[in-house]
């Protein structure tokens, strides 16, 4: 079944070129079917790229998915035009009275700031509270996972000595959980962040379970007993995303380290190789099937 996306969204042409079944809003409205409603709160500066990445992962399912793109009402994006946002996005204040089968909250380049310093932090807290009532399950990605663990469960973030960038190996800690069903004992996940959470802090919280832990002890994925998913990495990243970030940091004069285990022979002159797509697709498909479809009421 297709993923339904707003008419004219750039992601449509990209996904169609990859033979992914997408359907415009106009065509979807003509079908007598109850699609799953997924809200994506997109906090990334690279809005279009993130849309494509997430919709690609949401497409690998027999379920029909209706995507609503959302941005905070109290923050103005500096990297995306107002016309684009006005055409394809809804402010959070516009959807507060609605219900969704699932919600995804993306990362944001904010790890070096205290949460309370983020200009839309108050609204972010309201969104996280709202999601517990108005969405059957919520997936938090990268910075959003740190924010969610902090606000909802009191888990402090800890700054890393330097940026954790690259492709890292993680162990599947609870293969019996529906989210991790079919995931290999060891799988790979892209990381791009300056902060983390500690395993001992997660272990002390009776409502949280570590679903994936790095071979270096890093927390990769956490599941709450109320069905919230916290992914510290970027399973949605394209093969070239880390290369783009690496070059961007060079251009900014940051002198970044080469992303770990990403370029062949750790040499940026070579093209990186995709090595995480299948597990990423599986985790998102499991989330849609077991945490969304199997749990959501028919009448929202």
What does the model show?
- The protein is α/β, with parallel strands linked by helices.
- It is built from ten helices and twelve strands.
- The chain has helices spanning 11-17, 25-29, 47-58, 82-88, 92-95, 121-134, 143-153, 199-204, 241-251, 277-293; strands at 3-5, 22-24, 36-41, 65-71, 90-91, 100-105, 135-141, 158-172, 186-196, 208-214, 219-224, 229-231.
- Strands 1, 2, 3, 4, 5, 6, 7, 8, 9, 10, 11 and 12 form a twelve-stranded mixed sheet that branches.
- Helix 3 (47-58) links the parallel strand 3 (36-41) and strand 4 (65-71).
- Helix 1 (11-17) crosses helix 3.
- The chain starts with a strand and ends in a 7-residue tail after the last helix.
- The mean pLDDT is 91.
